[in-house]
Amino acid sequence: MTITSHLFEAYLKCPTKCWLRSQGEAGEEDAYAHWTRTQNESYRSEGTKRLLDGVPQNECVIGPPAPQNPKSAKWRLAADLLAQTQDLESRLHAVERVPSEGRGKPAQFIPIRFVFTNKLSKDDKLLLAFDAMVFSEVLGREVNLGRIIHGDDHATLKVKTSGLMGEVRNRVEKMRTMLCGSSPPDLVLHRQCGECEFQTLCRQKAIEKDDLSLLANMTEKERKKYHSKGIFTITQLSYTFRPRRRPKRMRNKRERYHHSLKALAIREKKIHIVGSPELKIEGTPVYLDVEGLPDRDFYYLIGVRIRHGDSIVQHSLWADSPEDEKVIWSEFLGMLATVENPVLMHYGGFEATFIRRMCQQYGGPPHDSSPDKAIESSTNLLSVIFSQFYFPTYSNGLKDVAKCLNFRWCDPTASGTRSVVVRYAWEQSRDPTAKEWLVRYNADDCEALEIVASTLLRTCRPQGRPGAIDSDPSDVVSVESLKCQTPFSFGKKTPVTPDLNFLRKAAYWDYQRDRLYFRSAGQRSRKPRKVIVGCNTTSMRINKVVVHDVSPECPTCKRISSRPKATRVRILYDLCFGRFSIKRWVVKHVYQTYYCWRCQLIFGLEKRFKTRLKFGWNLVAYFLYQVIQLRISQRVVTQSMNQLFGLNLKCVTTHKFKSSAAEFYKETQRQILARLVKGDLIHADETKANVKGQLAYVWVFTNLREVVYLYADTREADVLQATLAGFKGVLVSDFYAAYDSLDCPQQKCLTHLLRDLNDEVLDHPYDGELKELVKNFGSLVRPMVETVDRHGLKRHFLRKHHRFVDRFYRELGKAAYQSEAARKCKDRFEKNRNKLFTFLDYDGVPWNNNNAEHAIKAYAALRNVIEGTSTQAGIEQYLILLSICETCEYQGLSFIDFLRSGEKDIYAFAASRARRRRQSVNERHCGDGAIRPEDDSR
Q1: Which residues have C-beta within 8 Å of that of residue 231, sequence separation ≥ 6?
Q2: Residues whose CB is less than 8 angstroms from the CB of residue 551 and which lie 6 or more positions away in sequence, other chains included
Q3: Any domain includes 682
Q4: N or C: which end of the chain has fewer CB within 10 A?
Q5: Does residue 201 contact residue 187 with C-beta atoms inside 8 Å?
Q6: Which residue has the higher pLDDT, 870 or 835?
Q7: Whole-number Å distance between alpha carbons of 909 and 731
Q8: Which residues are paired to 575 by β-bridges?
Q9: Could you give the number of structural domains in the chain?
Q10: Nearest by Cα to 811 from 765, 848, 779
Q11: pLDDT at site 520
Q12: What is the CATH number of the domain that holds 462?
């Protein structure tokens, strides 16, 4: 079997994972594993693009095989290079070829690997060494150096692969031995199982075997030691525990951890206590749980749960970015300062590391203050549990212990790894649902921490003390009360006679269910057949037959053909729009074809019917109307049309409706954009888009009559400069700095500014200077808006406000503010002085960006329907059609009527509609009052 880099990476994590992948097993990929794979692929694609951009195009190749002769390679950089030997294969992310420095010196090849994490592990270096080993065998000479590009900053780490070759070859040999065998390796669970797609399968097998690897605290060395003694299951291990009296010299020392006692607690499903553990809470308990991204050393959520008597207060301190980390740390210290005699408690070393790093990075509380005392004397409940409390769980994790105490999280699938995925997803989309999930998950952790602490406190209190709450003796067992038990034999006992063996098997529940109850119940009833919506299109009634008059003249040689061929038939399934109804309309097209013996050509069939054309344009227009304008998902619209019109549309077919229509109207979008650029006013805004989980952007450009949506991979100014090149009108936008790169008059949205000023005042309620500044600005803008309400956006009436603007800035320049918030607002006013009141000098220029925000809402509604399932090409197709839909709405046109017309020019369609409105209404009707159906032969 060929050992690939994919299998080698799995072997570094777990031999069982490697074996299952080699056997083609399909695992259940969880959210974290899928996110990790997606991040790796995205980072690799982006990193490859960055490398290729720095190399001339004629010096780089993509996807070549590894060169057998190094001298034959002419490229400087190769991406996605395949290196393959007899039983080894590696798909190198990139290879850099360094030309020889002189005659006789060969060129050097440096393999490159991309890793999206900021912190590298030894496995990442071993994977690079594997790439170098396979590549060196292909080249026939050693590759001693490689590079890893990793992290958010694309840092580069040089790795001497020669020093890792020995370990790589050793592991490859072990892989060969394992893969050539017929039996899988020993099943072992470890911490990395939470990131594996086979974790459910492996854990189920481990539970069925009652394997020792289920005990999270047992090392591999200890497990092998038990195996050497013939102990392979947790049940077997539980019978080896022997309570012993501790000698006097060891009573003041910490008790060692007993795996056998943990196994006993699991077997008996009771909490076992060793010695006399102590836990005192003399003050107000404060339960702390922190969420962070270990890869970035960034803590974004501090959960604090405070109990005051019978009342409970939950605080969630959230940081949007690493810059806010200091803010939430200060808020946390301030919160501790308000608590009387706080007693800080947490679970595990993550919070302890958080406290230490925050104190080192941002400073701790004042010395000898109540927060300082709480931090110094903080209690790690895990250290209290370890070696003293043995819960009937496989690990001492907070989730296992709390679930043992009957606590349940709101989301049963919540975990630390999933919180990392949700946090990254929130950073990309800013979805409030993701933030609520994280806050709820953190609050549940705090509540679970309180329950664990209450249980430990209740158990640690000596019985008979006033106010003590005694534990249930049936659930808690003191190890000192256990008696030495007689050893038991392991395994199943062999029946002494064949009859007893038969009766023993017949007593099993599986035997009774499969053999007895099934026979007694008789034959099972069949499942009802699934009803398929729609009908067979071949059985539909033909509404109209169109016989086409075809000329027998050959279109090539102009010779009259005397050899008629077969009569061709094409059936078109469409919709017929009545005045107040829609119905299915089936048209049969009949063609007489001819054959020209000179040109050897069969002619007579129209070009549009040479393809597999099956559905009419009215049906496509109706579909697009519901998807684009009514914001209904394609799947739902397809089901609805099948149900209502008796069609048999497939989702693949309706996807083609959208793509073909977008291709048809691509020129219409360009025409709308061209009119926008030639105009006098453009409103611009941008929003995020989700492309298969990847962050992208949608830009919107609009005025009072046209709207254009454009897709972009980034939010950089290059998109603006390329799209609005040559625009000399007024640009209305928010305060995003990219808009400042355009060379045109600009009007910043005062609504955004007023909103920001209002938030600043609310954040600094006691800042008198800031309040005065905001008040003066509000007094300046209000008369302008009143003038707009009275006279409209006319320069003749608005230019009188210029003198008030000048007076405002004169007074602003003289002011010397002491408040930092007031100084920031002053700097903002002065920086944007030429862009805040541009609307006073032009006709028809508004003072806000509401038009763009209204257009953004249309895409946001459509984005909720798409839900990130579309590709880049799919979103671009949506945007073309949405541009036309919103432009029709702005001009008072019917989107579905424009689609049905087959017209590409919106402005020509608007002109034709105006002419039709001037005609008599009676000219549009037949004598019986029915609307004439449109030409269904389209």
Answers
A1: 212, 237, 240
A2: none
A3: yes
A4: N
A5: no
A6: 835
A7: 28
A8: 584
A9: 5
A10: 779
A11: 47
A12: 3.30.420
Look up the domain containing 873 and give its range: 618-746+850-914
Q: In whole angstroms, what is the distance from residue 690 CA to residue 860 CA?
A: 11
Q: What would the mean pLDDT of 568-574 be, rounded to a whole number?
A: 82
Q: Which residues contact 677 (CB under 8 A, 6 or more apart)?
A: 723, 724, 725, 726, 727
Distance CA 91, CA 659 (A): 34
* Cβ pair 851, 683 in contact under 8 A: yes
Specify whether 333 is located in the same domain as 463.
yes
Closest alpha carbon to 255 in 346, 394, 384, 380: 384
Residues 642, 592: one domain? no
Q: If DSSP codes are grouped into helix, strand and coil, which group holds residue 305?
A: strand
> Which letter does DSSP use for residue 627 in this model?
I
Nearest CA to 31 among 442, 445, 416? 416
> Residue 62 contacts by C-beta under 8 Å, 6 or more apart in sequence?
52, 78, 79, 80
* Average confidence (pLDDT) over 55-65: 81
Amino acid, single-letter form, for residue 775: K
Domain endpoint, select from 162, 180, 198: 180
Where does 80-164 have alpha helices with state H?
122-139
d(C-alpha 839, C-alpha 331), whole Å: 42
Residue 476 — φ and ψ, nearest 5°?
-120, 135
Closest CA to 302 of 333, 266, 273: 333
Are residues 859 and 710 in contact, defined by beta-carbon separation less than 8 angstroms?
Answer: no
Burial (CB count within 10 angstroms: exposed 0-12, middle 13-18, buried 19+), residue 327: middle
Q: 768-791 vs 750-763: helix axis angle to the nearest 10?
A: 150
Backbone phi, psi, residue 368, to 5°? 65, 15
- DSSP-derived secondary structure letter, 336: H
Report the DSSP beta bridge partners of residue 587.
544, 572
74 three-state secondary structure: coil
Asked if residue 405 is part of any domain, the answer here is no
Backbone angles phi, psi at 928, to 5 degrees: -90, 5
- Could you tell me if 803 and 712 are in contact, meaning their C-beta atoms sit under 8 angstroms apart? no
Q: What is the average pLDDT across 723-729?
A: 90
Q: Is the same domain home to 829 and 681?
A: no
The verdict on 21 and 69 lying in the same domain is yes
Helix/strand number for the chain, H first, E second: 34, 24
Of 614, 644, 664, the one marking the end of a domain is: 614
Q: Residue 938's pLDDT is what?
A: 34
Tell me the HSE value of 616 on the side-chain side, using a 13 A CA sphere: 25
Q: 170: buried, middle or exposed (CB in 10 Å: 19+, 13-18, 0-12)?
A: exposed
For residues 872 and 724, membership in a common domain is answered with: yes
* Burial (0-12, 13-18, 19+ Cβ within 10 Å), 878: buried
Distance from C-alpha of 241 to C-alpha of 258, rounded to nearest angstrom: 8
Residues 6 or more apart whose CB falls under 8 angstroms from that of 444 comprise 409, 410, 414
| pLDDT greater than 90 at residue 884 | yes
State residue 299 phi and psi, 5-degree precision: -105, 120
Higher pLDDT, 521 or 205: 205
Q: Are residues 704 and 819 in the same domain?
A: no
Residue 732 and residue 649 share a domain: yes
DSSP string over 433-463: HHHHHHHHHHHHHHHHHHHHHHHHHHHHSPT
Q: What is the largest CA-CA distance in the chain?
A: 119
Verdict on whether the full-model pTM lies above 0.70: no
Comparing CA positions, the residue from 115, 118, 122, 123 lying closest to residue 148 is: 115
Q: For 730-755, what is each residue's pLDDT tens digit? A: 999 999 988 988 889 999 999 888 88
Task: Classify strands 284-293 and 298-308 as parallel, antiparallel or unpaired.
Answer: antiparallel
Task: Tell me the percentage of the chain whose pLDDT exceeds 90.
Answer: 24
Would 771 be classed as within a structural domain? yes
Is residue 400 a contact partner of residue 394, using CB atoms and an 8 Å limit?
Answer: yes
CA distance 484 to 385: 24
Does residue 472 belong to any structural domain of this protein?
A: no
Beta strands in 141-293 (DSSP E): 145-150, 155-160, 271-273, 284-293
Identity of the amino acid at 45: S
Cα separation, 626 vs 285, whole angstroms: 57
